[in-house]
TrEMBL record:
Belongs to the protein kinase superfamily. ADCK protein kinase family. Pfam families: ABC1. The lineage of its organism: Archaea, Methanobacteriati, Methanobacteriota, Stenosarchaea group, Halobacteria. GO terms for molecular function: ATP binding; protein kinase activity. This is ABC transporter.
Amino acid sequence: MIGYYLRYAQVLLRFLPVAIALLRDQRRFLLFGPPRRVSTAVHRERAERLTETMLDLGPAFIKVGQVLSTRPDVVPPTYVEVFSSLQDEVPENTGGDPMTILEAELGDDLDLETVEPVAGGSLAFVYTAVYEGERIALKVRRPELVSMIERDLRVIRGIVPLLAMFADERQRYSLENVADDFEAIILKELDFEREAAIMDEIGDNLADDDRVVVPDTYDELCSERLIAMEYVEGRKITDEDALAAADTDPTEMATLIARTYLKMGLVDGVFHADPHPGNLAITGDGRLVIYDYGMSQRLTPQEQEDIASLYRTLVRRDVDGLLNTLVALEVLEPTVDRVAVRRVLELVIENLEGRSEITWRAIITELLSMLQDFPFRIPPNVMLLVRVGTVGEGVCRSLDPEFDFLGATRSFLVDHGFIESELEALLAETRTDLRESAPVLARAPARFDSVFGQLERGELVVRTDPVDPPSGSDPAVGYAVLAGALFVATAVLTLHAQPYELPSLLAAVAALVQYVRARR
């Protein structure tokens, strides 16, 4: 317990300078005074200091930073952008020597003299070794890591109520759930048996695409703290020389990355959620290799359907559909003021339409920044998919600065039947209009017959007061005015879902004919 309090004090002291600066932004003298206006450059500097602090505090806080990079409901956009650069760069000796786990788990199965270190992450270290005459890769969890992370998660839970005291109502709504989200994501990453199972599942789902490589696992060697897998050598995906050596077009590779991740999330329902350049590589023959499945997730069929709807409504700028989807995904409360949110979403679409270039990151940033006035949160599954979109788009655009991620998304959605092509969408809307209009049109003859019958029987009378026409008046002018008014009404009625413009158009033409006859 003493270790917990010492760690709590250490964490508070490390974050205290930035916390005081942020509080002074609200009140210059902490307890009183006007708010301060702070430039974006100053916020970026603070975010970089926070990033360095999280790196120094160790694995749990590195993961917290990575999670916060997808939580604009908790931190401002500048901090989101800087936190997204956090990589799993931790010294090998942090959390104990992973070789002790190798000796305990595989000492009888491997020649430990063949073990060679490859890379270190926040939760594990990667080695290669010789097994049955072949070189394999070993991802080994740091031995003392679980107790360290459990302690730090308790510290984070203790700090969250303190943060909530100084947060506004909207941020407080998100902070109530953020500690649970951190814990769920980090503890899943610590379970290497789960990671190996997801790795195998994704490998099976992508087996038909020979352009993508998911390393096979050696089930007999895997455990809760160790994954043994096929050793697939590749060079970093953003290495221009690697692409040139493999004779691979950058745009083609960017398209492959985008479509592979869309397939994982929208079609298969299980996806790799950490597509940063360190986890993507290219083989000598130009194939895409995906490493490190610790940050990954399964979706329920309903979640798949809702997330596909999110992509579809964003691509098609469907405001009503987007609002319904955000409620279904629990980003917004069902009791939210829908009229107010709809106005905000319409403004988001208008702002995006006015830009010369629209990216996935721009859409998400604009959407979430405009929702700041409403209580909203980003559930873990949605958060991970937002991360896939933003990080994946960043990788694709580093390969091809002109890469159209939204265009690739639209093409994928059309190819897999999530949305119709423009022609099919137009035909579908026309069919819907005709189906809804059929009952009205079917009743029209009976109504006309009823009106004509009333006229014949003298039951329908229009009473007017006689008015002496002014001298020199032209009776044709009345028809001209009527025809003009009906043409304008026709133009307005074309925007209506029902085909009311047809009767209006016919009446306008009739008035125009009468005008021509009167003029003659």
